[in-house]
Structure formats: C-alpha cells, structure tokens
Amino acid sequence: MKNTRTIFIVSVVGVSLLSFGILNKSGKAGFTGSPGEGTCAGAACHGSFALNSGPGSVTISTNIPGNEYTPGTTYQISIKVKQTGQTLFGFGCEVLDGSDQPAGTFIITDAARTQQLNASNGRPNMTHKLNGGLSNDSAVFTFDWTAPATNIGNITFYFTGNAANGNGNASGDYIYSGTYTITSTSTVGVNEQNEAVFALSAFSIANEQLNVRYALKQAGNVQIALVSMDGKIIRQTSVMKQAAGEQNYLIPMYDCMNGTYIVYVLADGKPYSRKVVYTSK
C-alpha cells in the first residue's frame, strides 16, 4: 500500500550560523542568533558577559562582488574573531533565504579547523573543530559557499564568534554576532508578477504527485522545475509550447525526501515561483 504524502503551501523566498559550547570542545550548531535561534551569550552557556559587550569583534569578508551573488557560483568566505588578550576562538555561520530556510551549499576548505554540522532545526552550519581557533588575539576561519542554482532573492549570512580565554570552562568568554546580506545579480525577482503568468498554485493529489496549476495570459514557451533549498534541480521539464489560459502539470514526488522545495514556472524566460513543504505520512 502506498504512503500518503501531503504538501503544504507556504510563502516564497530566504541563511544563519551555529554556536560553540566550551571552546576546548568542538563547535555546536543551533546557537547562531538567526531567526528562531539564540546565541551562546546566556546563563546556560558563556554567560559572563552580554552579547557584543566586549572590546573584540567578529567580521565577515567575501569575494562576492558588490554584494551580489551569481546563481551557482562558488565564493570564498572568511570569518575573523578578534580580541586582544584572548587565546582561543570559535565561530558559527549559517546562511538563510528570506523565508529563513537554508540557502546555498557550504564547502569545507580547511578540514583541520572547520566542520559542517546540522542544528536541531535542520539548518546546516559551519563551525570550528576542537581547538581549531587556538591562537593569540585573533583567528580567521575560511570556507567556500556555493550560491543556489537559481535566483531566490536576498540571502543573509548569520555569524557568531567566541573570544575565549582558554581556561577550560565557559567563564570569561566573550560572544559576538553579526549579519551580512547579499542579493542576486538577476534583474528579475523570484516573485515578480509578469505579463506571461498571472496565477500559480501547487497542491498535493493522490499517487504521490504534486499538481502545479498556473494560468497564462498569453500563449508562450513554458518550463517547470522543482528545486531544493540548496539550489539543486530535482525535476525539470523540457520547454513546452502552451496556449493561453489555465494549465496543470503533475510532478512525481515518490522518491523525494521530506522537506521544503521551490516550484518554478518559467513563462517565456520569466520566473514565477511558489514554495512547498513536502511531508510523507
């Protein structure tokens, strides 16, 4: 007997960090200061000082030109944690789209000092390894990040840094946080109402298929794609010539993992999209 699967519609569009714990341990995910997450600057963790209250800092630098990403392009990311007199440093970084969903893909380039972990909410994080930030006064952590394969609008990096004194416990450590937002080089927004498409909806039907319903103001070439939140194309049609009026297209979902996807309808090269959350029962 086949499983019944349900797809819920949510709005379209949205990146964050992680945290650490005591820095003589490896980093931990899920304390990035991103939407829905706290930071390690609390009574239950590194509670000696309030967030961003010390003389140090955490900063991000990239080779993303003009703060505009090109879909599918890989960029170099560096996060620097700095505070004079501290001897051990850690960081966390998470990247989210405008709907607070993971965006793009992390690539480890310094396996001795950094690692990727998933937070309890499923968000991928880059963070330090055991003693990966053992250094005087500052430490720089580097990794690569690949932008989503398509334009998904604004993307935000949420990052935190821990400037620790290396005393083997959580006292005397300073926590810092920051954000960095980039936009796409594409001139067409993912939600732009255009002359070709005037309506788009997506919903579940029987037999593990997603029914995409849309209406065309005029006849034109149409292509449909199902894309994961990290930019991977899961399904993609060839270009279809379609008449004006209401249309339906069925996307098979039987081998898809539970999670959030974006459905794209490209009408004469202009995108319209809807985000869906796919859950099997």
Task: Quickly count the helices.
Answer: 0
Number of domains: 2
CATH class of the largest domain: Mainly Beta
Biggest beta sheet attributes: 6 strands, antiparallel
Helix and strand composition category:
mainly beta
Could you tell me the radius of gyration in angstroms?
Answer: 22 Å
Mean pLDDT: 79
Distance between the termini: 12 Å
Describe this entry's structure for a reader.
The protein is built from no helices and 21 strands. The strands form 5 sheets. Strands 1, 16, 17, 18, 20 and 21 form a 6-stranded antiparallel beta sheet that branches. Strands 5-13-12-7-10-9 form a 6-stranded mixed beta sheet, with no helix packed on it. Helix content is 0%, strand content 50%. The protein folds into 2 domains: 13-184, Immunoglobulin-like, CATH 2.60.40; 189-280, Immunoglobulin-like, CATH 2.60.40. It has 281 residues and is mainly β. A hairpin with an 8-residue loop joins strand 2 and strand 3.
In short:
This protein is mainly beta. The chain has strands at residues 5-10, 18-19, 28-29, 57-62, 68-69, 74-82, 88-97, 105-107, 114-118, 124-128, 138-146, 155-164, 174-184, 197-205, 209-216, 220-228, 233-236, 240-242, 245-252, 259-267, 270-280.
